[in-house]
Amino acid sequence: MPSASAEDSLSDYPVEGMGFSISLPEGYQLLRISGAYRDGTGKPVLLDYVDEYVAVSGEITPQELAGQLEDCPEDPSRGSGAYRIPDCVVWHFCIMDMEKMPYENGFVPVLPLSGEYRFAGDKVCALGGYYPYDKAKEGVRQACVEAVLAATEGYDIQYVYDNALYEDTAVYLYQNAVAAQPVFARQRAEGYSIFDAEWQEAYRWAVEELRKNPESYAYDGITFVITPTQQEMALLPDELQDYERNMLNGWYLDDGTDVLRAFVYANLSMTDDPVELKDLVIALRDTAERHRLYQAYRNEEDGGVLRRSEMIAREAGCDYLSEFDWEAICLDGERTE
User: Fold this and answer.
1) Segment 125-147 mean pLDDT
2) d(CA 52, CA 125)
3) What's the distance, CA 123 to chain centroid?
4) Is a pLDDT exceeding 60 seen at residue 74?
5) pTM for this prediction
6) Are strands 304-307 and 222-225 parallel, antiparallel or unpaired?
7) Cβ neighbour number for residue 125 with a 10 Å cutoff
8) DSSP 104-122
9) Does the structure show a pLDDT above 90 at 36?
10) Which of 62, 193, 212, 278 is most buried, most CB within 10 Å of its CB?
């Protein structure tokens, strides 16, 4: 296989809408296709508002690559909802208009994204993940990564990551072997998406209920205690205990987060163990990157002190809903493909 050495004959491939190009050696090319995704049931979906740029080896056309991504099977060795990546794929990234990002996050990408999004004006560049590859292609993969990072240096950066509760300091997530989950899409194994009629109905009802009867869902009299217990700390190595204490500081309650509460309620209503809206408590924490994290708990007490160690955690993540015009996207029920 060719490598990305200085002696290679390089060809430039422009990235439309972002003002830069990527140079690849002979034997490689950068293909642009419509975004290859799956919905909550695993059905292939092409998102024509997502330009997916895929660096590949060998002679393959964009149409052939799109067909391989549409037909590729699941890869259980990489976890639920992961797909077997075609051998020709070296690395990829996606470009879209910022207003389309919430739609894009309603689907699961076939080629995993890292969770790092770079914003330039009204454009978003989503960086590809780190996945199994042929080591002979490592030089080309690294050259692609460095070209995109250099071209987007200074852009506003946001992170979407499963382990957001433990990402207090920004890192380049493409280096992590575990791909991020979409902001709004559920794990495919759960078999639903935000575009399902049942999910939409639950979300709409919760939003209306929280706004019409806020006094019925206020956190009045509740004190939330999230400090770890001695038993929890004893399970951690000594070098991680201070870090854990720091990550558990700064949490607070705000019963005015009607959109987030409704979102979590709708998610949980689609599972085998739903939560009554009146019993749903959302704890919040602001990170150094100016993002808000949340943890959702079931509360079966009336007032009093809620202790994290005594409650059942139901869901956790980043409150990215507050960063988009979520109601315009979700309440009208419009679906863009």
Assistant:
1) 79
2) 10
3) 17
4) yes
5) 0.61
6) parallel
7) 24
8) HTTSEESSPEEEEEEEETT
9) yes
10) 193
